TrEMBL record:
Signal sequence interval, chain numbering: 1-21
Pfam families: Germane, Gmad2
UniProt protein name: Sporulation and spore germination
Record flagged with keyword Signal: yes
Record domain GerMN: where: 106-194
Biased composition (Low complexity): 27-79
InterPro entries on file: GerMN (IPR019606), Gmad2_Ig-like_dom (IPR018911)
Annotated keywords: Signal
Region (Disordered), start-end ranges: 24-79
Length: 301
């Protein structure tokens, strides 16, 4: 019996080791993180949240609750929400658009990407390098082939790469797209992991700039920070701190992990405010890698 079991176990291990890799998302961890910063049930700080790999990446787009899971899926009110990746400070930054539902989701996403950030988003430093006319000609086997307009490759190498990263990160939110090929380019199709170095230490996927929020507000994103600790505070229009919280990302120093935390705040009247996500410096305790998201806040008792 022992002689039969050993070969069987070896075959199972070999099959697991040869499983094909997939370009995952670096979206937020699945729901389940404690609003007080505790780790998800059944995990310890620094270990991946349920549904994520050791690198903090979800194994498939459907595991991302604020991005690919809903990308291309019309809501009951006849709208669809798409994730857009704009530029800021030479890297990538996430936002989203809710528009009338359509079957041409990739076309919608690229059109919005080319249209650029809103006035409020521009005020935070967001921009776009993608020109109008950028289209997908086909999607086969998880690879979307992009037909770029004349001038798509203009600029220096860093600019051209950032432009491609915008397209790749935006299109790969959809379950049918894992990689993007650029027509006329002899290079291999690329996926999100090929441009992961363009992400800042902290990415905020929710709330988005201009969102109307209520207390508690759910803050999600990814981070690669010291000891995986992500801090959040809510500020009123005068910059006064009216709510704070922290959490531990699924992975931290040396790897990127998803985070999710609920932050309560107290405010007597509705009005503008800011959700600020940051890392506490291990050197002097200051706030570093700050991401400020201007929002409209509902009153809270």
């Amino acid at each position: 019996m022992r002689r039969l079991i050993t070969p069987l176990a070896a075959l199972l291990l070999l099959g697991a080791g040869c499983a094909p890799t997939r370009t995952g998302t670096l979206g937020p961890a699945p729901a389940g993180s404690s609003p007080t910063g505790a780790s998800p049930t059944g995990t310890t700080p620094g270990t991946p949240a349920p549904g994520t790999s050791p690198g903090g990446r979800t194994p498939s787009p459907s595991a991302d609750p604020t991005g690919p899971a809903t990308a291309g899926t019309p809501t009951p009110d006849g709208t669809i929400t798409v994730e857009l990746w704009f530029t800021r400070d030479g890297g990538l930054v996430a936002t989203r658009r809710t528009r009338a539902a359509t079957l041409a989701t990739s076309r919608l996403a690229l059109t919005e990407l080319a249209a650029g950030p809103s006035r409020a988003e521009t005020a935070t430093g967001m921009g776009t390098l993608v020109p109008p006319g950028t289209q997908v000609s086909r999607i086969v086997g998880g690879v979307a082939t992009l037909v770029a307009p004349t001038g798509f490759a203009t600029g220096d190498a860093a600019t051209a790469r950032l432009r491609r990263a915008q397209v790749v990160w935006t299109l790969t939110q959809f379950p049918s797209v894992r990689r993007v090929a650029f027509a006329g380019d002899d290079g291999a199709p690329t996926g999100r992991d090929d441009y992961a170095d363009l992400l800042p230490p902290i990415v905020v996927t929710a709330p988005a700039v201009g969102d109307r929020i209520t207390s508690p507000v759910t803050v999600t994103g990814t981070a690669e920070v010291f000891e995986a600790t992500v801090s959040v505070r809510v500020l009123d229009a005068a910059g006064r701190e009216i709510g704070t919280a922290f959490t531990v990302a699924a992975c931290g120093s040396g790897c990127r992990g998803g985070y999710r935390v609920n932050v309560g705040y107290r405010r007597a009247t509705a009005g503008p405010g800011t959700v600020e996500v940051y890392e506490v410096s291990a050197r002097d305790g200051s706030r570093i890698n700050v991401v400020a998201v201007p929002v409209v806040m509902a009153a809270s008792g």
